[in-house]
Amino acid sequence: MSNPLYEPFRLGDLTLANRVVMAPLTRNRALPAGDLPHALTAQYYAQRAGAGLIISEGTQISPEAKGYAWTPGIYSPAQVAGWRLVTDAVHARGGLIFAQLWHVGRVSHTSLQPGGQPPVGPSAIAAAARTFDGSGFVPTSTPRALRLEEMPRIVDDFRRAALNARAAGFDGVELHAANGYLIDQFLRDDSNRRDDRYGGSLENRARLLGEVLEALTSVWPAQRVGVRFSPFSHASGAADSDPQRTFEYAIERASAFGLGYLHLVEGETGGTRELPPGADIARLRARFQGAYMANNGYDRELAERAVATGSADLVAFGRPFIANPDLVERLRRRAPLNAGDVTTFFGGGPQGYTDYPTLDQA
User: Which member of 44, 45, 75, 181 is catalytic?
Assistant: First the structure.
């Protein structure tokens, strides 16, 4: 019996071949000189074009936005050209791909920042996190607080990245507002201790989110823009005194722009799906008027049930797509999945990146 997980889905003016989404996956394989996507990147994404939608790995919007070694950017002409290789390859296989626009904020290290400067954040509070600097994992550096007069620059960096995503041939963009990165840092009262118009009240803490979404939807039709939140995750030191209330407000704010989808990490990023007391995913989803994309720990059975019952419109898979380029076909045919080699998840070359076999090859 067929399941709607494998049936087409209308997202704005786009028709997705199925409701299985490839979640954004940092793989640390950009060319270090210029943080460039390249031909191997294009091969990797093209192999996975059977997904109804691919969301690219987190892509930094400026040199300052970088938090990990060997991650790609989308702010230079050479990076745009590298991403054009990727989008052309995905489109040639009949796929669709959105760019995930990323500013890590305080989740960085001085060695990764231009001129060795401190990373930036809403407040000068270090993240309880580590990052990869190219030689190993190191504690993140204490950030400096963004000055009020710098905020328009941050918004404009997102706007220019959205323009570059169009030039690179992407089909849309996703705002990374999850996992303890810059937008998430502004939303949460643990990392945002500002006393100006970007701090304090929920309205103020969500101001940057609204300004960035306004910029993105000035470049792209709103239905070609998605947003990702992780309300109950503590990734990269994220914490908030009342995440349910905070993210109900943030999601309502995002919904007002008429976005194409809401992408939620349900539980801890890459970890348990269990929710803390007072957490209610259904109440969060009810605040959003567009499509709902569920994420975190989904297997075939859980995903099929979620779509069949209407608890999700789309389901994003992360790690299973690393080892299974033909994941949709394997799910549809109830075939066994390749096991991923965790030692090659981050950094390196083709091994553990483009050499996983499809069912037919196996």
Answer: 181
